[in-house]
Amino acid sequence: MSGVARNAVVFPLIGAFAAFMAGCAVMDTGAFTRLQDEMVGLKKEMAVLKAAPPPAPVSAAERADVGEIGAVRRSFADLNADFDRLRTDQLAATTRMDDARTEMQRISARQDEQDRALQEIRGNTDRMKEIEKRLAALEDRIGKLAAAPAAAPAPESPREWKSPEEMYEVAVGQVKGGNPKKGRETLSDFASRYPDHKLIPNALYWKGEALYAEKDFENAILTFQDVVDRYPRGEKAPDAMYKQGLSFLALKDGKNARILLDLVQKKYPKSKAAEMAKKKLKEIR
Q1: Exposed site from 39, 195, 224, 271, fewest CB < 10 Å?
Q2: CATH 1.25.40.10 is right for the domain spanning 164-284
Q3: Per residue in 178-217, pLDDT tens?
Q4: Where along the chain do its domains lie?
């Protein structure tokens, strides 16, 4: 505390004391003694106040330290704010990264699907080439069979028929009834007499069945091929192709047999012959 401040406190105390003494002149001796003691105590307190050093002023260095602390606190607050912003940006970046990873997985799945489809297409292409190669070999074999000497023509039947249909029915009955040679001769006679009849495709087919029953598999193949070539949309075409496959199988030519059995399913998928070909393929593979 400065000297001016101490004087401002001391002088009013002295004045108050003097007034008090004047007013108390008539008081008794005991009261006067107490006043003297109080006055001594006040003087001691005044002496202590006068002897106390004035408070040290705040130095410029301390003020600078206080300012630096404030600046540090503000910097720390700014760093915390920056850290919060960085954490928010990191969360956003993580979310974007997860989205990108999910998209990459979808792209990879689509790529795998496309690769599988491409491999399947390549496999089908290779299989088609193999089938075409086998068909070429089969056509070559059929051509060689066609160049072989034909069977001797059947003699004219002396029997008189009431109608073409009767002749056809009798011939088929002979093939089914265990006389394939006689049936075949009758069918050949039928084809010679009625070349434009609607039953000609069936007559050719049963002629092939007769040759198959006689174990003349090569000529059976040629006869069945005649049905397929001349009447590809006829009801006997699928059956003729199926029996060609069985004929090759009987000749121990499993390769061409499988080609024909597979071809029946592709060309006539809804036919009964296609079902039989599918079953037969499972047996021989």
Answers
A1: 195
A2: yes
A3: 999 999 999 999 999 999 999 999 999 999 999 999 999 9
A4: 3-51, 67-129, 164-284
